[in-house]
Design goal:
heterodimer, A: alpha+beta, 4-stranded antiparallel beta sheet, globular, B: alpha+beta, 6-stranded mixed beta sheet, 21% helix
Chain lengths: 227, 214
C-alpha cells in the first residue's frame, strides 16, 4: 500500500506522532531488552513513515536515543559519557503484534562545532570527550570528504549533508559486517552507493520482480555434448 | 568445459553500461546476452538498445523491474532490437518508439539453462554469455575480489538483480564467475563482479537463460 501522508509520514524530527508512538516504543523496548533499570536508553526525537500492506503496517523509523552515562566498571569497561545515537528501525505491526525487522544504530553528536565546517562535523561525535570516538569521527569525516570528491557528490542543504554523513558512517559499519561474513576474497568498502540507505539502494537499483513474479516459461536447453 | 573461459577476450562482449537510477538490470542482462548470441551466430558485435525494452516491452515494468524471459518474448514479438545508437538509453520509460525497419538483430527463441554450474560453464564456453539473476547481497559495497557471502545471507530465494556471466576461471584456486554488471565502470572491478563458482552462491544458477539466434 502506498505510504500514508499526514502524521505518519512526518519528515521533520520531533516527538513521535501518535501513529508512530507504538512502534517507536516497541523498538526502544527491544533496544533496552536485558538492561537493568538506570542503564536503559531513552527515546528522543522520532520521524518516519508507514507503509500499509495486507493486514499489517511496515514502519520505517529514524529515532535518536539518549544513552545514559555509565561509570560503573561492572557494567561498562570504559567510562562512557552521555551519548546520543541515531538509529533506524523497521517494525512490522500485524494485527497489533509488533516485530522488529531491522535495527541500525550509530553515534551522532547533538551540538554544533564552531570550527566553520559544521556540515560535515556536526554529524559525528566530534564534541564528545571520548578520545576513541573523537578519533573515529575525524577519520570518518576525512573518508566521507574523499567520497564526496571522488564521486562528485553535491547535497542541497546542510541537513542533507549531515544525514548523508550519518548514512555513510553506518554503511561503513555494514560493509565491515559484510566483509566479516564473506568467505571469498572479495573486498567491501566505499563505493559510489555508500551514501544511500539500504532501502534507497534496493528501491532504486534492484529488481524485486525477479523473485516475485514467475516469468514466461521457457523450454530447457540441451546440455553441451548431449547427443 | 575448458578450465577457464572469457568471452571478453573473444569479442563477444560490449563495453560496460550504466543503468543509472533505474531498476532496469533485466534489460541490460538480456541485451548483453543477445549481443553475444548475435556475435556468435551472425558474426557481428552490436551494442543493442535497452531503452527499446523499457519503452516497448509491455509485459515488464521498465525501471520498476522486469524478467528476462518476458524480455526475450517481447523482442520476438516486436521483431527485433535496434542498436544503442539508434535507440539510445534514457534511464526512464518513454513512449515506445520502435520501428521494425531499424531493427538490426532478431531472435528466434529463448531457453532456460541448467542449474548445474558445470553444465553452465560448458554451455557458456560453447554458446556464449549467459543471462542470470542473483541475490545482490553485499554488492552495494563490493570493491573487488571474489565474493562468497554466507549462504543464509545471500539466499537463492531472494533474487533481485539480473546480470550477465561472460566468463569463468580460478584465481589462486578459488573458482569464480566473471559477471558483467550494469552500474558503470566506476563500480566493482571496472564494472565487473566476481562471484564464487560451484556453490550456487547467491542463486547464480537459479535463473540462467539465453536467447536463441538461428
Amino acid at each position: 500500500a502506498p505510504a500514508q501522508s499526514g502524521a505518519a509520514d512526518a519528515q521533520g524530527w520531533g516527538p513521535p506522532p501518535p501513529e508512530l508512538l507504538g512502534p517507536a516504543r516497541f523498538a526502544l523496548e527491544m533496544y533496552n531488552r536485558g538492561r537493568a533499570a538506570g542503564t536503559r536508553a531513552v527515546l528522543g526525537a522520532v520521524r518516519g513513515r508507514v507503509r500499509r500492506a495486507g493486514h499489517g503496517s511496515l514502519y520505517s523509523l529514524e529515532a535518536t536515543l539518549e544513552e545514559p552515562p555509565c561509570n560503573d566498571p561492572t557494567v561498562c569497561q570504559l567510562p562512557v559519557s552521555r551519548k546520543t545515537l541515531l538509529c533506524s528501525f523497521e517494525v512490522l505491526d500485524e494485527l497489533g503484534k509488533h516485530m522488529l525487522l531491522r535495527r541500525d544504530c550509530g553515534p551522532v553528536v547533538t551540538k554544533v562545532t564552531d570550527d566553520g565546517n559544521e556540515a560535515l562535523n556536526s554529524g559525528l561525535p566530534l564534541l564528545t570527550k571520548d578520545p576513541l570516538s573523537q578519533d573515529f569521527s575525524v577519520k570518518m569525516a576525512s573518508i566521507f570528504k574523499n567520497f564526496v570528491t571522488t564521486y562528485n557528490r553535491t547535497y542541497q542543504t546542510k541537513e542533507e549533508a549531515q544525514w548523508r554523513l550519518s548514512v555513510f558512517a553506518s554503511n561503513m559499519v555494514r560493509a565491515q559486517k559484510i566483509q566479516a561474513l564473506d568467505h571469498g576474497t572479495a573486498q567491501y568498502g566505499v563505493t559510489k552507493f555508500s551514501d544511500l540507505t539500504e532501502e534507497e539502494f534496493r528501491t532504486i537499483y534492484l529488481n524485486p520482480l525477479l523473485r516475485e513474479v514467475p516469468g514466461k516459461k521457457m523450454h530447457l536447453a540441451k546440455s553441451i555434448g548431449d547427443p | 568445459a575448458p578450465p577457464e573461459w572469457d568471452w571478453r577476450k573473444n569479442g563477444a562482449v560490449t563495453k560496460v553500461k550504466d543503468q543509472g537510477m533505474c531498476g532496469s538490470c533485466w534489460a541490460f542482462s538480456v541485451t548483453g546476452n543477445v549481443e553475444g548470441q548475435w556475435f556468435l551466430n551472425r558474426g557481428t558485435l552490436l551494442s543493442l538498445s535497452e531503452q527499446e525494452l523499457l519503452d516497448c516491452d509491455k509485459m515488464d515494468k521498465a525501471c520498476m523491474g522486469g524478467l528476462p524471459s518476458n524480455a526475450y518474448s517481447a523482442i520476438k514479438n516486436l521483431g527485433g532490437l535496434e542498436t544503442e545508437d539508434d535507440y539510445s538509453y534514457q534511464g526512464h520509460m518513454q513512449a515506445c518508439n520502435f520501428s521494425a525497419e531499424k531493427a538490426k538483430v532478431y531472435i528466434n527463441d529463448s531457453v532456460e539453462l541448467s542449474q548445474n554450474e558445470q553444465k553452465l560453464a560448458a554451455w557458456l564456453a560453447k554458446k556464449g554469455p549467459i543471462s542470470v539473476a542473483i541475490n545482490a547481497f553485499g554488492m552495494q559495497f563490493y570493491r573487488h575480489g571474489i565474493a562468497h557471502p554466507l549462504r543464509p545471507l545471500c539466499s537463492p530465494w531472494l533474487i533481485d538483480h539480473a546480470v550477465l556471466i561472460v566468463g569463468y576461471g580460478n584465481r589462486s584456486e578459488v573458482p569464480f564467475w566473471a559477471i558483467k554488471n550494469s552500474w558503470g565502470t566506476d563500480w566493482g572491478e571496472k564494472g565487473y563482479y566476481y562471484l564464487h563458482r560451484g556453490s550456487g552462491s547467491c542463486g547464480v544458477n537459479t535463473m540462467a537463460s539465453s536467447a536463441v539466434v538461428n
